[in-house]
Amino acid sequence: MNRNNAGKKPFPWTCSRCREKALFPAIIDHAVDVGHDGRMYHVKVEGLKTPKCKKCGLVSPDSEANEQITRAFLRLAKLLTPTQIRINREALDLTQEQLASALGIAEATVSRWENGVQIQQRSLDNLLRLFFGVPKARSLLIKGKLNTIVLVAKTPAMALT
Ligand SMILES: [Zn+2]
Question: Which residues line ion ligand 1, judged by CB < 5 Å?
Answer without folding.
Answer: 15, 17-18, 53, 55-56, 58
